[in-house]
Amino acid sequence: MREHGSKRVALAALGMLAGIGAATAQEVTGVWQRDTGASRVRFSKCGEALCGTISWLKEQSGPAKVGQRIFYDMKPNGANTWSGSAFNPEDGKTYAGTMTLSGGTLTTAGCVMGGLICRSVKWTRMD
């Protein structure tokens, strides 16, 4: 009897941990503002992944456009980390992208040469 009770407790704990992982992924959805205040991106689910679309721009005359998807196919890659692709409207290129969530700060990075050279940006939640 005691062994069955222990197994139930262990299964319940695993179920709770799985729920925590799902909740963490949801924390990224919403609107985030770039650290410079120049743009905002809305992250939302797109299929089994997360995508980020420009929702607001301070300066609208540049190459970036509202409604343009700049993060796509971002899939979980560890605790509070996602990997996928990042599009840079300034140079028109797509890079290997990562996102890391730490509290109220989201850090995104676009990398080339297998992650040898990366450029990161910090974002703050708006909603």
UniProtKB/TrEMBL annotation:
Highest taxon listed in the record's lineage: Bacteria
InterPro entries: DUF2147
Boundaries of every DUF2147 domain copy: 30-125
Keywords: Signal
Signal peptide: 1-25
Matches recorded under PANTHER family: BLL6627 PROTEIN (PTHR36919:SF2), BLR1215 PROTEIN (PTHR36919)
Protein name, per record: Uncharacterized conserved protein, DUF2147 family
Organism: Bosea thiooxidans
